[in-house]
Design brief:
alpha+beta, five-stranded antiparallel beta sheet, 5 strands, globular
């Protein structure tokens, strides 16, 4: 059962929410961690891959926020940012 749950969760992180269908996808790394971003002209979703120690989450969150404009070329609308160091979603201004 644990193997099934692990495979299910891995598959979930490999694709964006249904509302992001047709979005561009970029796989990037920052500070030794892998991320996938899906984005359109108005929305972004970013997912961290791999394990994170409890003390790493604040830096991971900062890295994820920094990656959004670098990868998309758009401005992050910070008031719309939701999520945590595992996945985040927000609106963009391009």
């Amino acid at each position: 059962m644990r193997l099934f749950a692990l495979l299910f969760l891995t598959a979930c992180a490999a694709s964006p929410l249904p509302g992001m269908a047709g979005a561009r996808m970029e796989k990037v790394s920052m500070n030794g961690r892998a991320y996938t971003l899906w984005y359109t002209q108005t929305r972004v979703e970013i997912v961290r891959h791999g394990w994170a120690n409890p003390g790493d989450h604040q830096q991971i969150r900062a890295d994820m926020i920094a990656l959004i404009p670098q990868v998309t070329g758009c401005t992050l609308s910070e008031p719309t940012l939701t999520g945590d160091s595992g996945e985040m979603r927000a609106s963009l201004r391009c």
